[in-house]
Amino acid sequence: MSGIRRRDLLTGTAALWVSGKAVPGEVVPGRLPWHPGSAAAPAPLKQGPWAFFTDPEAATVGAIANRIIPPDPTTPGGQDAGCVVFIDRQLAGPYGQHLGLYVAGPFNKGSKQQGPQSAQTPREMYRKGIEALDRYSRSAGGGKPFAQLEADRQDELLHGLESSTLELEGVDGQTFFEQLLKDIQQGFFADPIYGGNQDMCAWKMIGFPGARYDYTDWVSRHNERYPHPPVSIAGRPDWNPGR
User: Fold this and answer.
1) In CA terms, which of 31, 84, 146, 241 is 20 to 30 Å from 78?
2) Residue 1: is its pLDDT beyond 50?
């Protein structure tokens, strides 16, 4: 077995078992080895009105998303990338209600490694957190909600939440900020089928190939930018021109 790499052994012996017999794999050149849209992929996001947020809440989260991921000349910021849509749809679904998770007490302040230790669902945290942040912004910013503050002032408030030096009424501001940060990051880099990462902008920015069928030729080519466009779970627009 000297000189044979594990990768070569696995790819060379790959087979599909059909009716008890091994059928060797094959190379399919010149065409896609599947039909786009035929797999059991997640249901694509349905465009439309907010599923959870109110318009003022969406404006607040959009402003926060643009401070955490500011736009630049080549990549949209968090709001235009769809992070608010991603979070809205997540909060309207099972994630927002903690479905499938153990949520009974006791609820004690734990370490970060222990995960969330709160009776609040993400939906409740967002609703109360946004309200408390806008209330603080109005009281300290001449009656303006967070979304209408100058960018420097928005950054100041967010830094205060992150460092726990800014206290919100009835809300753990640091925990709320950490939730926002995580969800905005996920919305920016998640597959576009979930509403964020519009036009795969985040993947294009970092050169991530996405859900491509095969890019093994590039696995060992370090420090080289991947030259092909990324692919979503739902494919690419040019693969599905009728959709």
Assistant:
1) 241
2) no
